[in-house]
Amino acid sequence: MAAPLELSCWGGGWGLPSVHSESLVVMAYAKFSGAPLKVNVIDNTWRGSRGDVPVLATEDNIVSQPAKILNFLRKQKYNADYELSAKQGADTLAYIALLEEKLLPAVLHTFWVESDNYFTVTKPWFASRIPFPLSLILPGRMSKGALNRILLTRGEPPLYHLREVEAQIYRDAKECLNLLSNRLGTSQFFFGDTPSTLDAYVFGFLAPLYKIRFPKVQLQEHLKQLSNLCRFCDDILNSYFRLSLGDG
């Protein structure tokens, strides 16, 4: 019998199995590939490091970061990409790089830097799942980490000031959403009728943006105008997560 695969990740809310993009990427890929994950939702009894979430544990391995976890699952013969051509495999890598460069900074900003969203939604949600007194410290540390990650990719000349950086990252993110919408077209998934790694990444990045009710919603409003991307998220939630959803 195969060793159990246990995924520790942030939990759900707003109709999502997780509100955390990187956790969602792994959860979706596991569903698509048939990997039998036992999901451990992090709450305020969790004793591990929260900086590395999601974390996959087996009898012999502990793996963090979505790309490394997906590679580990593929080596265990859980491969959602086995029907893809070499060209589609190359496209997958290119689109994931695009997501991380052009969309992720705006997603991080929406959650962790935009102050109305952070203080009314993000900070209370995460603080309620972290034990005291870490709950007073860790959300702020996560917010600083998100800002540093944004500035690392965007804070070079001529964008010296945060306001200029913000304007650019939202422009980039909207262009990225438009590209994804055009690429998906009327297809069910990005490479036809079967979901693959790219679908897991797009779902993980878009679903929290689509579903979580934020007070400041400029990127969310743009996404909701792209009906095929919204339908894509809804279809994956309904087809793969309907029985496991719990609102957090």
From TrEMBL:
The keyword Zinc-finger does not apply. SUPFAM superfamilies: GST C-terminal domain-like. Residues 23-142 form the Mitochondrial outer membrane transport complex Sam37/metaxin N-terminal domain. GO terms for cellular component: mitochondrial outer membrane. GO terms for biological process: protein transport. Its main location: mitochondrion. Signal peptide: none annotated. It is found in: Mitochondrion outer membrane. It holds the Pfam family GST_C_6. The keyword Membrane applies. Residues 173-236 form the Metaxin glutathione S-transferase domain. This is Metaxin. It comes from Daubentonia madagascariensis (Aye-aye).
